[in-house]
# Entry
Amino acid sequence: MSLTKDQIKDTIHLEQGVPKARASELIESLLELVKDTLANGEDVLISGFGKFCVRDKKERRGRNPATGDDMMLHSRKVVTFNCSQVLRSRINGK
# Structure
């Protein structure tokens, strides 16, 4: 099961006593800041969590899975995530 924005909002409301409307505003503000930073080509580093990086992918040869025809995939930017050592240890139960 995935964690949703509503679940995050409810958790902040219950654990921090922040009104739900304010918790929702905070979450949206944080996500907009992250999106804007990544859209500008900058990385986002959250200590103890990980780093979101913008990477360039070069043009490459690909294949249409429906028809099997060869095609060229255009260059593009992608966002990658590298988790911190703290998060990696927690995921692995250490």
Observations:
- Residues 20-39 form the longest helix (20 residues).
- The CA atoms of residues 6 and 53 lie 26 Å apart.
